[in-house]
């Protein structure tokens, strides 16, 4: 079972803007996130994904292609340039990345499937997430 990472979708106004950023790197074959430290459990992340947090919710994932040193004392998290929608799940914001076990990861949404939480107004969904109710 692969291990996953979670990370805040920093500077993304919405999951759609995150998707657009990822897909803008499709010609390059990968999108890259910079991190200061290489994860200690890097071998367990093979076959895993980076799960994106937006508005205190896990909203999607991008499969991890690997890690690469930047040459400046940092590392790139190399990602497939796509966002796979997942069933929304509350997730508290945090700095950097955190590990997520396979059994704790939300399932992918099927093509055309809509998450019930997305039908709710964004403000209400955010308030319920802040209170830990969704």
Written overview of the protein:
It is globular and about 45 Å long. The relative contact order is 0.24. The protein has a single domain, classed as Archaeosine Trna-guanine Transglycosylase, Chain: A, domain 4 (Roll). With 134 residues, the chain is mostly beta strands. Strands 1, 2, 3, 4, 5, 6 and 7 form a 7-stranded mixed beta sheet that branches. The mean pLDDT is 89. The protein has helices at residues 15-23, 122-130, and strands at residues 4-8, 31-35, 49-54, 57-69, 75-79, 84-90, 97-100. It holds the Pfam family DUF1489. InterPro entries: UCP032025. It comes from Sphingobium ummariense RL-3.
Strands, helices and their partners?
Layout: E1 4-8, H1 15-23, E2 31-35, E3 49-54, E4 57-69, E5 75-79, E6 84-90, E7 97-100, H2 122-130
Parallel strand pairs: 1-3
Antiparallel strand pairs: 1-7, 2-5, 3-4, 4-5, 4-6
Question: In summary, what is this structure?
Answer:
The chain has 134 residues and is mainly β. The protein contains two helices and seven strands. Strands 1, 2, 3, 4, 5, 6 and 7 form a seven-stranded mixed beta sheet that branches.
Overall pLDDT score: 89
At CATH level 3, the topology is Archaeosine Trna-guanine Transglycosylase, Chain: A, domain 4
Second CATH tier, the architecture: Roll
- Specify the structural class: mainly beta
Would you list the SSEs in sequence order as H and E? Answer: EHEEEEEEH
Low-pLDDT ranges: none
Say what oligomer this is: single chain
């Amino acid at each position: 079972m692969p291990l996953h990472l979670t990370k805040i979708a920093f500077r993304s106004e919405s999951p759609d803007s995150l998707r657009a950023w990822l897909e803008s790197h499709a010609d390059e074959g990968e999108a890259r996130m910079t991190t200061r430290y290489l994860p200690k459990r890097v071998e367990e992340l093979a076959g895993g994904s980076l799960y994106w947090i937006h508005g205190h919710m896990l909203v999607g994932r991008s499969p991890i292609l690997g890690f690469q040193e930047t040459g400046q004392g940092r590392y790139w998290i190399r990602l497939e340039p796509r966002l796979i929608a997942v069933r929304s799940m509350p997730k508290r914001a945090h700095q950097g990345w955190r590990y997520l076990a396979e059994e704790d990861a939300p399932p992918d949404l099927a093509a055309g499937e809509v998450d019930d939480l997305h039908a709710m107004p964004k403000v209400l969904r955010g308030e319920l997430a802040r209170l830990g109710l969704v």
